[in-house]
Write a structure and sequence with these properties.
This protein has 234 residues and is α/β, with parallel strands linked by helices. It is built from nine helices and nine strands. Strands 2-1-6-5-7 form a five-stranded parallel sheet, covered by helices on one side. A two-stranded antiparallel ribbon has the order 3-4. Helix 1 (11-17) runs parallel beside helix 6 and helix 8 crosses helix 9. The site of 6-chloroguanine has 13 residues, from strand 5.
């Protein structure tokens, strides 16, 4: 899978992408990730990429020309399955969207900055708009980190454990069960016996039950959705 990201401040992302599951995916040759610095396409001696908004609100807007040239230099080299603009007014990201994106060949991600990008770029090039939640970030770079991290961890072959998030249907829409590691007793608190039993079937049942109960209590909204979609007898 190839992911290209157009950004105003690429350095914000490089550390994360060089020290995470994303790095594993890249090292294994499963993910080809490229960050393009929009400034390269800036106008004039100062490599200008933003300007004041018409209508006079506060803040700056990314100009259409540098973005257009940047996008066209990329689309002339390959076809993208999605051109994604990261913006608070996009559709809220969820696991289902992440799963479907992880199956694509080529994705182009545009990180906005300041007040956003000129609307004409959205009208002309963007095919999908994604928000990572109902709050406002200063730029799209942090959102791109979130999106690429979520996609990378489910590309088949990235995590060593072959039962990826994608194949574990029961857990898919539920919260994870509690986890423990050594020692088996800490400050008087014991790890549940079943986890020490070595009995795989019982362990799985316990974990499913915990995931189920935890979701019902903490995220009734998710639980309801899961019940509707899984026709699990309750
Ligand atoms: Cl994708 N971008 C920005 N700037 N803010 C956000 C967001 C994205 N998602 C939630 N808030």
């Amino acid at each position: 899978m190839r992911i290209d990201i157009i950004a105003v401040i690429p350095e914000l992302m490089t550390s994360f992408f060089n020290n995470s599951i994303v790095k594993n995916a890249r090292n294994k040759g499963i993910l080809d990730l490229n960050i393009i610095d929009l400034r390269q396409f800036g106008l004039g001696n100062y490599k200008q990429i933003d300007d004041y908004p018409y209508g006079g609100q506060a803040g700056m807007v990314l100009m259409p020309q540098p973005l257009s040239e940047c996008i066209e230099s990329l689309t002339s080299q390959r076809k993208y399955d999605r051109v994604i603009y990261l913006t608070p007014d996009g559709q809220t990201l969820n696991q289902k969207t992440v799963n479907s994106l992880s199956l694509l060949e080529n994705i182009l991600i545009i990180c906005g900055h300041y007040k956003g990008i000129d609307q004409r770029i959205r009208d002309r090039y963007v095919t999908m708009e994604i928000s990572i939640g109902d709050y406002v970030l200063s730029g799209g770079e942090t959102a791109a980190i979130v999106l690429v991290d979520a996609i990378s961890r489910i590309i088949p072959g990235v995590i060593s454990d072959e039962t990826s998030a994608l194949s574990d249907t029961f857990q898919d829409d539920l919260l994870s069960p509690p986890v423990y590691t050594r020692p088996s007793e800490f400050m008087g608190m014991k790890v549940p016996d079943v986890l020490l039993s070595g009995h795989e079937k019982n362990i799985k049942e316990w974990q499913d039950q915990q995931a189920f109960e935890k979701t019902r209590l903490l995220r009734p909204d998710l639980f309801k959705k899961w019940q509707e979609e899984s026709d699990f007898p309750v």
